[in-house]
Structures are given as C-alpha cells and as structure tokens.
Amino acid sequence: MIKLAKLLLFYTLGVFGIICISIFPQFFQSSGLSDPLSYFRDLGTFLIYFVQPESWVYNIPNSPSEFPLIGTLWEPFVYSMQILAGALLLGFVLAFGFALFTNFLPKRILHIVKRLLDFLESIPDIVIAAVLQMIVIYVKQTYEIELFQVATYLDDKAYAGPIVTLAILPMVSLFKILLLMIEEEFTKDYVIFLKSKGIKKFSVLVRHILKNILPTTFYHTKIILWATLSSQFIIERIFNVHGFSFFIIESFTPMTIAVSLILLFTPFFLIFQLVDLWTGRDISITGDEAPPRRGLSLFSVKELLVRFRNIKWRGFGFRPWKPVLAPFMVFFRHMKNWKFAIGSLFFIVIISYSAFYSITTDNHIDKARIVYEADGATIKSTPPHPPPDPFLLGSDSLGFSISDMLVIGAKYTLIFALIIAFLRVVIGMAGGVLFSFGLGPKQQNWVEKTVDSIHFLPLSLIAYLLLRPILMEQFNGFAYTFTERIIFEIIILTILVVPLTSVLSGNEMKRVLNAEFIKSARVLGGSNFHIFWRHVLPHIGPRMTILLGQQFIQVLLIFMHLGIFNFFFGGTNLTFGAVGDPPRSITYEWSGMLGSTNNALSSGKYWIVAWVLLAFILSIFAMQFIIQGVKEIQQTKVGVIYNLRKMKKKRDKRDTANKPDYNINSDSFRMINGEKINGAP
C-alpha cells in the first residue's frame, strides 16, 4: 500500500507539473514580465476550472463552436499512439535482431557496423523523413509504383511512412546499447565458465546474456522513448498526420494543452512505475553505498573564509591567472587528438568566418528577383533560383542567396547552441553537487522519481508550447524586444533539461564518492570542498565534456524542430496582408530556412532545404568527432586503449639506450696462438 501511495503521489506531482506548463503560454501572451505574480493567479483560477468536468471543452480561437474535449482528442490520440507503438515495436525488433546477428561477425566488420551506427545516430530525423519522401516521390514518378503514402489526406491516413521514419531512431539507439552491454557481458567470468564447458556461443548469448541484460535494457528505453516522442511531434508535421499534436496547435488553450499532455503522460508513467514495483527496483542507497555527509550544506561560509585566508599571497604563491589559463591548456592538450582537433577547428573556422563576413559586409545578402538569359530578354529563372546561377547554392522563394544566409546565420546558430548547452551542463552540475552532497538517500530517491516523469513528455512539444507566444510576431508586432526574446529562449531551452542534467551529474558524482580513495580522503580529514575540488571534479570533467557535446546536438535538433513550425531563434518575422511573404528569421539562423521544407519537397526544389540540412549534419558530425576525441583521450589515460605509435617510439628509444655500444675495428683484436680475440687492450 505504501508503494501504491507513492505511485499515486508521483503521478499527482507529474500532473501538477503539466498543469503548470499549460498555463505559461497564456501567461506570456497576457502579462509576462510586466506582472510576474499574475502567473500564480492564473494557475489558481485554472486549477478551479480544471476540476470542473463541464469545463473540459475543445474550442478553436475566433470560433464560437465547442466540442467535448476527450471525445475530440481521443481518436487523434489513438492514431498517434498507433504510430508510436508501431515505430517502437519495429525499431526494437530490428535492434535485437541486428544485435544477435552482428555478434557472429568478424571484429573488423563489427567495427565498421559501429561506425555506421555513429553515422546514423548523427542524422537528424528531419533529414531521414525528407530523404524517405524524396525516394517515394521519385519511385512514383519514374516507375509509377507507390511504396506508401507520404502524407495523410482527409480520411486516408498515412501509417507506413511515419512508422518507418520514426523507427530508425529507437532502432539505432537500442542497437548501440545492446552491442555495448553484450560486449561487456562476454568479458564476465560466468561466460568464460560456460564456454569452458563447451556451450556454444549462440546458446550463451540467447539463454544467459540476453536474460541478464534485459532489465537494464528496459530502463534505457526511457531515454529512447523521450527522444522518440520529440521526433514524433515533427514527423507528424512532415507527413501531415492529424494526431494529438495537430489538435494542440489548432486549439492552443490551457485546457487542451493540459489534457493532451496528461493523456500522453499517463500510460507511459504507469507502465514504467508498475515495472519498478514489480521488479523491486525502488531501492535507496544504504549502508556503505551512501556517501557520508556533513550537514546539508556543501561548502560552509566559514570554510571558504579559512581557505581564502590561507592563500599564499606572498611572492608568486598566488597566481590568479592559473584558473583562467587552465581550460585553454586543457584544450591545447586535447588538440593532439586528431578527432578532437577536426571537430574543434570546424567550429572555430565557421564561426570566425561568419563573424568576419558580418562585420565586413554589414550582413549583406544578395538578392535576384528575375534572372535573364544572355540576350537580356528571355527569362531564365524566377525565385527560387536553382544553383549555381545566379548564386552558388541557389536562392530561396524570395530570391535571397542561400549561401549568404548560411554564412550570416552560422554564428547565431552555433554560438547560442553552445551557450545553451554550456548553461545546461554548468547549472546541472551545480544541481548535481547539491543532489549528491546535500541530500540523503531518501531525498535523492524522491528527486529521481519526480524528475523521471520528464521522460514521458516530448521536449520539442514543450518548447513549442512555451516559446510560441514569445517568438511569433503578431499583427501589432512582437510582445517582447529582440533581447528579451533571445534571453527568454535561452532560459526556457536551458531550464527544460536542467532537472535531468542535475540528476545525471549527481549520479556521476555519487559513483565517484563511493570509491575507496574518497573514503580514505574523508578519514584523513578531507572536507566536502576538498573532496569535490580535488577528487570528484577531475573524475567527472571528461564526462561533463561529453555531456556538453550531447546537449549541443540536442539543442540543434530542437532548433530544427522549431524551425519546421516557423519558430526561429530571436523571433519570426511575418508580413500581414492579402499576399504575404513567407515567415523569415530575423537573425538568419539556420532553422529559419526549414519552414518551407514541405513545399520544397513536394515541388522538387530540394536545394531550398538541402544545404541547410547539410550544415546541421556537418555541425553534428563535428561535435561527434569532439565527443569521440574526448572519449579516446580519457580511455588512453585509464589504459583502455593505447597509443601504439607512442609506445613503439618509447620502446625503440629504450632499446637504443640499453643496447651495448660495439665499436669493432682491426685494432680491437690481437693474436693469441694464431687466433684473433676480440677486446684486446
């Protein structure tokens, strides 16, 4: 009964969090910064409104019609869940099948498969959907064979396209996880014992290894589900699927948002929580695993004052520039790794060139309305102009040069994505310090369970709901200034993930705190500050760098998802009138070119979105190189991989130093009984 009461409490907390989120769009549209306390008044009013069944109605703005909310949302919700369930089932079945098959391949081919998975993991879902639609359209036009529907038309629903596209992400993610866990299991003693008994590899894999890794695999599916839900929000848009997200966008009232998210949240929450209860995984850290604490504060004011007073100020004992130079020294040491160097130089060169171009040309963008032939009378092309004439990469639908927009928007896209990722990691690491040092095992368990509910809400959809009133221009202009829009977007995209990064960082710190050397440091009188600064931080530093890269990639994906809905970084510029121009990005950041994706694909003018998608892919590849470089450097330090070239040089140098110096010449011999003997004086 206690466990069921906890389950009900966590569910109630999740529902309350959803209600709090559903109020924000209305708050930003009405009051915003001018009256922050009005949010709590709106929240109280909506809670009273929410518990009244007669208020659950679905209505569209500027329309007097009202419909039953559950009756309106249920059918599209079932449609969306059919697509999601089909994609997860297809992806998981393929992942397990491929994982079993690849374990019987030679190591060289297995290495190629891993690199292919890294490549597929870096391809955004928008690119996969676009390529799939282009293939279907090409086959239809060339061979008059329709592989499957590329969009939903009226009552003719599309299933195959969305399911196949959405299944790739869980398939690749689970495939990589299974390969890593199976490789780890094969190194354990019980597998060696089974092989020594003559049991074949297939039997060991199916009867023992899969049985042992299934529970851990199930809990990895939370992250996979979270990413898949965010992708579904975009896939439904690209394939014109009228699922639950379509009806949220159409109504966009607090009641519709709240009920839709609760419908989405409830089944997944219950499935994972009931499995936790069934398996008994709800275990808190006790005994030797619980790190000892000194009160609830990490660093007391007294301790900091003592450390400040004990600084060696005389002579050169205190070097204030050392902490400033330390990150740069670490960066230059990492540049010795070619993968890290390539990824880093990509960002340095692209951002520098973008800034230089903007400064020297004042953000000039070439434009051509009509292009004529050499005779000056015959029209050659009208916007959008195909490459390479008049522009190398072609133009958009208004005639603006795509290459100029890519160059100008590079600095906004990459710099702000790095800033958001950096804030996520830094704030998350600060939260992880409070989580691991300041909370006891029971409090940590409660925090983990509460934060765990975020995995059942699509991140891109939540970002859309919160940013729509901020970024979209209205008839009377923007509700907020350009600076406020940027600050709001940075804050929202950061805060959405901070709870998860805090728990992740805290668990990494707990893992280090459970090590034996930490216990020895505490016995010797090490304070929490000393243990964190001298022991925990050096150990989790590489892991936080990898997390920074992962968050950067996630931010780029959110930019792309929001761009499909014409929500651009810094604001979306709209023209109101009988014939208005398409939405445009104020900063020309890359996602501003993705709003015309569907029109570009259906009309065959692929260059409008192809180049910007390529720019996103290259940026993701560059960050993947940085992540792989950091992993290799860390693995080299701990001895997992070795630099064979350096080892060979050291071995040759050692052999040369130890080799005896033989200087043989005719004077080195003398005659004894008619024989020459070496070493004569």
Give the beta-strand count.
8
Measure the end-to-end span: 97 Å
The backbone outline, from C-alpha atoms, is globular
Mean pLDDT: 80
Using only C-alpha atoms, the radius of gyration works out to 30 Å
Strand order of the largest sheet: 1-2
The largest sheet is: 2 strands, antiparallel
Poorly predicted tracts of residues: 282-302, 311-318, 675-681
- Give me the number of helical elements: 23
Verbal overview:
The protein is mainly alpha-helical and 681 residues long. Helix content is 67%, strand content 3%. The chain is built from 23 helices and eight strands. It has helices spanning 2-30, 38-50, 69-102, 107-121, 125-143, 160-186, 189-196, 201-238, 244-251, 254-279, 301-309, 321-334, 338-361, 402-438, 441-452, 459-471, 482-495, 498-513, 516-523, 528-564, 597-603, 607-638, 644-658, and strands at 57-59, 66-68, 371-372, 379-381, 572-573, 584-585, 669-672, 675-678. The strands form four sheets. It has a two-stranded antiparallel sheet with strand order 1-2. Strands 3-4 form a two-stranded antiparallel sheet. Strands 5-6 form a two-stranded antiparallel ribbon. A hairpin with a 6-residue loop joins strand 3 and strand 4 (379-381). Helix 3 (69-102) packs antiparallel against helix 8 (201-238), helix 4 packs across helix 6 and helix 6 packs antiparallel against helix 8. The radius of gyration is 30 Å and the shape is globular. The protein starts with a helix and ends with a strand. Residues 282-302, 311-318 and 675-681 have low confidence and may be disordered.
